[in-house]
Amino acid sequence: xxxxxxxxxxxxxxxxxxxxxxxxxxxxxxxxxxxxxxxxxxxxxxxxxxxxxxxxxxxxxxxxxxxxxxxxxxxxxxxxxxxxxxxxxxxxxxxxxxxxxxxxxxxxxxxxxxxxxxxxxxxxxxxxxxxxxxxxxxxxxxxxxxxxxxxxxxxxxxxxxxxxxxxxxxxxxxxxxxxxxxxxxxxxxxxxxxxxxxxxxxxxxxxxxxxxxxxxxxxxxxxxxxxxxxxxxxxxxxxxxxxxxxxxxxxxxxxxxxxxxxxxxxxxxxxxxxxxxxxxxxxxxxxxxxxxxxxxxxxxxxxxxxx
Length: 307
Fold this sequence. Notes:
Helix content is 6%, strand content 20%. The chain is mostly beta strands. 36% of the residues are buried.
């Protein structure tokens, strides 16, 4: 809404409107100029706001001093209330966001995405000091945090969130690291997922590992296809593969064994193809649900089967 309050020697008739464009075309004036030598102002040109016409033809005064400057009833006094209109809807945020680069790349932070060749690398997002610093042609990478994915050169589809996450990765793809130093030393291992402080921090070339929890798979270097869920789960595993552990420190004693399943159990170093559930002394009974069937002694049973 725009309001003009002025004093002029011209008597004007103002038509109020709710459109800035209509306002320009509907201002009509019946002029009676006191001084013949004063020529009327030029009419509005196309696209010129009404406010400019008033600026040329009026002498602005403050509301407080109006009664003192102009006697009430004076023919000189015009209260011009014009262009009673709403402002146009904002079309973009102000100030405009920065950090956008060719190829749908986004970089925020000192030397983030510093080495990118935007004619090849696309759809990368780097937020934080030196995030994705060495990336040249990799695409679809997301790095958030100090030095996240800083060593990556040509890998794609990696996500690193956290200080130093995936810091050493160079050419591998499809890794996800969330947490401080998660997958920090991983260089060429692919399709690994690390979620938690120092999760899979020592992994270098292992693939297809999933570590969920602080220091899960902490010492794993080249072992692949391991799944560890729980704080310090599979903590000491180095080269063992295809192990599944669940629980706090589950499988913590495993080092090089393969195809083990440890649920709530520390496991045994070096063993393979073993299933361990529970902890001796902590659990005293085990029941496995099953449907209707026959026992070896021919007695039909349903429900839980004690072991």
